[in-house]
Amino acid sequence: MSKIIDGNKISTKILKNLKKEISELKTKYRKVPHLSVILVGDNPASQVYVNIKKKRSQEIGMEFSLYKYPENVSEKVLIKTIKKLNKDKKINGIIVQLPLPKHLNERKILDEISLEKDVDGLTTKNLGALFSGTPYFIPCTPAGIIELIKSTRKNITGKKAVIIGRSNIVGKPLSILLLNENCTVTICHSKTANLEKEIKQADILIAAIGKPEFIKGKWIKKDAIVIDVGINRIKDNSLPKGYKLVGDIEFTTAQKKASFITPVPGGVGPMTVTMLLRNTVKSFKKKLI
To answer: Among the options 117, 118, 120, 172, which is catalytic?
Structure first.
């Protein structure tokens, strides 16, 4: 039976250190880091994520501001807001909560965020810098995943890492981070010829495809480190809310084979928010230098 990688516990420890650091910065400079979030529409999941970011920010002594717009907002209005925040010297981090409505050009809007305030690490400039080895900010979910993996063992040199999913938010940047840790990296996707075969070779498996329990536990290599990025809502009338949250991996069977595994929820999710706040503190400190 595998050990649980407790994202909440690891996150809490990092947040405690950030809170102490912010308190010291406030004493010395009489100001604190400030994170601004742009939220479009009424997507329930997005609202939950934004509320968590607000709560965690305030808990560690950081300032937080929210710019909320209706579903039908224009690109022009959003870009105008971003440009205003770029110029505001009090703002250290800017993020646009994803996903955006289909009528908006996500890439165009994200790329309006200045490199110095791109604490999500998702602009084209920042991703390009990551791929060339000089990132300004490490994208939050991949950064959190690396922290989770390293909580199980400090050295992962030579390990075979298999990533399921090739998004710009998780899969692609994570592949670079794992290469930097001297792993041998394979990215799998919907066109991969034999997914089960690839998974069975993975010393480290990361799933980020958004398909509930798609990856079967019997596919997992014995003693692998398993990171489940997926968070899927499936119907369960036996529960008060009528649903439950599951990952992309069949947890109960995978747990029997893996050496370490993240739960859903309580694994990757808390770390993503924590890395966002850590990046915002980093942005604040860069400005002081």
So the answer is: 120
